[in-house]
Write a structure and sequence with these properties.
alpha/beta; 12 helices; two-stranded antiparallel ribbon; 10 strands; Rossmann fold; single chain
């Protein structure tokens, strides 16, 4: 038997044995994915080690020191920094050392008994994000009244270049007022326009670890911060707990070029870890791609970390695309095992169809029907959440197991 705190891999055809705690949500050896549906590698077939070897061959993005310094210094182009140029050169050299040594997480601590490998060094940033999610889970479970998350998907804000608030924000305020008048509850507001108007509010792009193997995608995401690459200020560590704590989520968003807005899409992609992600990075020893592939082939439960929450979606546009974006958002949320609050909770409408952009808010002022439909979507959401919490509403088929895993 392996010692506690170690990980023993019994070749490429046998099971992976983990000393210490193995969470029931992480893997279940009795379950096997339907591999016959997805390719020639089946759970009952012997595995060729080469078939699980990560594929490599892309050009290296590694920068030479001179180019690294140029990019580092671009953050200090203001002449006000001239007085401390020597100190900035010292900082650039330190940053280069961290970059050259790939010091992604310079501050770590032992994972401890809650993980499969208690001796593994985990980032303190990730551990703090995990603790925030655990606290949010408790708020969700023990909440004395419903909690609703309202999300403004528009990047437009009067506090930066556009010089004017968005219609999405106005509709979100209508939704907030309708919910508060309908049922006592707690409301959190996530304004994604802060990514364009607030210092340090960044949602970094998903790195697609899930596409390599599900267990490589950690819950919460461990890809950020990556201090060696300067990928810090990741807002998702604050956003994950908002989703976890909520009983109902309402997204109000415009259409941008037939699709969701950029900040909304960034958040959507980064929520992939909430749908099948691995809550124990020690199982994969951090980002060991081959180990993650072996884990998935041994059987992965694809834990649905946001399962059971209700949603409403309001999509507005001016020319094209509202129905497709509304359907895409709804399909995405359903795929993550959230449930639509009702038919009136999903809405797609045009405001000022083919009218000048300069009068966009005037058109919303005139469209009182759109305003009331948004309020009704919000009322439907809070009514459904309240009904579920009192046991008066259940979703047909919610007790049925999926025959096909993600």
């Amino acid at each position: 038997m392996p010692r506690r705190g170690t990980i023993a891999v019994s070749g490429t055809t046998g099971p992976l044995a983990f000393a210490g705690r193995t969470d029931r949500h992480i893997r279940n050896p009795s379950r096997r994915p339907a591999f016959a549906d997805v390719g020639p590698i089946g759970a009952s077939m012997p595995l060729d080690e080469n078939q699980l070897e990560p594929r490599r061959g892309m050009p290296s993005p590694k920068l030479p020191q001179a180019e690294f310094r140029t990019r580092f210094m671009q953050g200090f182009c203001d002449p006000a920094f001239d007085a401390i140029r020597p100190q900035l050169e010292d900082a650039a050299r330190i940053a280069w050392d961290a970059y050259a040594d790939s010091r992604k997480s310079p501050i770590t601590r032992k994972s401890g008994p809650d993980f499969a490998d208690p001796s593994y060094d985990l980032s303190v940033d990730w551990l703090a994000a995990r603790d925030a999610i655990k606290a949010a889970e408790n708020r969700h479970r023990d909440a004395p009244r419903p909690r609703i998350l309202l999300i403004n998907g528009s990047p437009r804000s009067e506090h930066t270049c556009p010089g004017e608030m968005s219609k999405s924000w106005r509709l979100l305020e209508i939704a907030q007022q309708a919910i508060m008048a309908r049922h006592p509850c707690d409301i959190d507001i996530l304004d994604l326009s802060r990514t364009t108007s607030e210092y340090g509010r960044i949602i970094h792009p998903c790195k697609a670890c899930f596409s390599t193997a599900a267990p490589l995608c950690h819950w919460p995401c461990s890809c950020y911060p990556n201090h060696s690459l300067g990928q810090a200020h990741d807002w998702m560590n604050d956003i994950y707990p908002l989703w976890v704590a909520a009983h109902g989520i309402m997204i109000v968003t415009p259409v941008h070029w037939y699709q969701a807005s950029a900040p909304l899409k960034l958040m959507i992609d980064r929520l992939v870890c909430a749908d099948g992600g691995n809550p124990d990075p020690t199982l994969t020893q951090g980002k060991d791609a081959k180990r993650a592939k072996q884990l998935e082939m041994e059987g992965w439960d694809y834990p649905r970390h946001l399962d059971g929450r209700l949603f409403s979606v309001v999509v507005h546009g001016d020319v094209e695309g509202v129905e497709n974006v509304r359907r895409a958002l709804s399909d995405w949320l359903c795929f993550m095992h959230l449930s639509p609050a009702g038919t009136k909770a999903e809405l797609d409408r045009y405001i000022g169809y083919w009218k000048p952009y300069a009068t966009n808010h005037v058109e919303l002022d005139r469209d009182t029907a759109m305003q009331e439909e948004t309020a009704n979507a919000a009322r439907t959401l809070i009514d459904a959440v309240a009904a579920v919490r009192t046991g008066c509403l259940t979703e047909a088929g919610s007790d049925l197991a999926d025959p096909r895993q993600k």
